[in-house]
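FW: tagging you since you asked about this chain on Friday. Here's the raw sequence from the shared folder, copied in full. Didn't touch anything.
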Amino acid sequence: MNNLQAPLDSPFGPASTAQEVIKGIDLSGKVAIVTGGYSGIGLETSKALAEAGATVIVPARNVDKAQQALHGLPRVQVTPLDLIDPTSIQAFVERVLAEHPAIHLLINNAGYIGLTLQHDARGYEAQFATNHLGHFQLTAQLWPALVRGQARVVTVSSCGHAASAIDFDDLHFDHKDYDPMAAYGQSKTANALFSVWLDRLGKPVGIRSFALHPGGIVESGFTRDMPVEASIASGYRDADGKPIIDPENNKKTLEQGAATTVWCATSPLLNGLGGVYCEDCNIARAVPEDATELLGVRPWASREDLAERLWQISEKLTGVSI
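HL: got it, structure written out here
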């Protein structure tokens, strides 16, 4: 178990919103990057950071859609980026660093869920390539600016990590049948382990890292894309198909779902801390492998030896290091 996984005396909880947790915090002069920052909980995160005074850079595959969603927010810049394309990531980094030598907040929020087996141009399984390797390359290539900004790096994982540890022997489903939930779970475990080792490397130079579970969000991500029947069976919608909002039981609005991301990015309670997995605006509990609840972090998503192994493999797969 990771003994750092001890909840704090946080004034916030499952029902808190992004606007509530950032109230009174001034981000004037700070520069933030929010991947996927133009839809779902990413959009709510961008709103909260911008309204607190930050300059917010939103990478986007669909620039027009992003500009429409973010219209009217102050100090928001939309810049092209496709996380599954290494060349696109490199171009994004070059554009950003030419204008912003220091980055103070990096929110690795964007995510992809694939119900059929897809690969990127390198032959890597698409969920792992997008959710983990894309953010790994982005973070590594932004490293000098993150150091200058003494940044917090916040990576959105999920309770979905409970579905699968990382299969280091078959990361890309080359030898086993494709299971979309196992692939998603593996990518979310990778998000959490990435954050553990990033904090280990970043702490000496002033960078701290956090991973988190935002909660089950009916209006966003996997639950939104479920067939209605499956969503009803999973407890996210009632018998009439209407969303069920029950934050104490992991069912949140978009505003509530963005709260833990914003809390990790800005809370003074986390000063001097890092390398932990959070949920409900607090550090999550460590739970055993066989835990059946949706909350908490499993050992395979918090062990330092696994985090170091993943980091080394990620360097080889991307050809990028800090």
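FW: The longest strand covers residues 55-60.
HL: agreed, and Strands lie at 31-34, 55-60, 76-80, 105-108, 152-156, 208-213, 216-217, 251-252, 276-279, 282-283.
FW: great, closing this out.
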